[in-house]
Amino acid sequence: MSCRCSLxxxxxxxxxxxxxxxGCRRVVAAEDIVGYWSGDWGDMILEREEDGTxxxxxxxxxxxxxxxxxxxxxxxxxxxxxxxxxxxxxGDVEFTFAYQGDTLALDGRWRYGTEGxxxxxxxxxxxxxxxxxxxxxxxxxxxxxPAAP
Length: 149
Known about the structure:
This protein has 3 helices and 8 strands, in the order ααββββββββα. It has helices at residues 3-19, 30-33, 133-140; strands at residues 35-39, 42-48, 54-58, 63-70, 73-79, 90-100, 103-110, 119-126. An 8-stranded antiparallel beta barrel has the order 1-2-3-4-5-6-7-8. The radius of gyration is 20 Å and the shape is globular.
């Protein structure tokens, strides 16, 4: 590279660096959330179906969830055995996704049924690997939560 080209390239790089906001952060895309997670309430696997619905299975009480992902957030419904029905074994769930350095984390909130305060204790981080086979089998079985009220 000639000296003239090197100077032009350096000038272009400095313009790009000056024009970037200092608070840039990595945006979470739908494909980023698919996979194996672990944290509060045990292990979890999330998948995205052809229609865009996000489905998942987690280890606590044979949990299942489904919902939608938009703007770095999942909004949906969770359910667990024995009944998979509100107000004891199902309810609203919200996950907010964000990168913390190179690690993708999920800040989750949930409640029994559809009324009352959301609990703030469903926090997990993305893991490498496929995750537990029994969770994948639950997703693959097609079992889903009964429709939310």
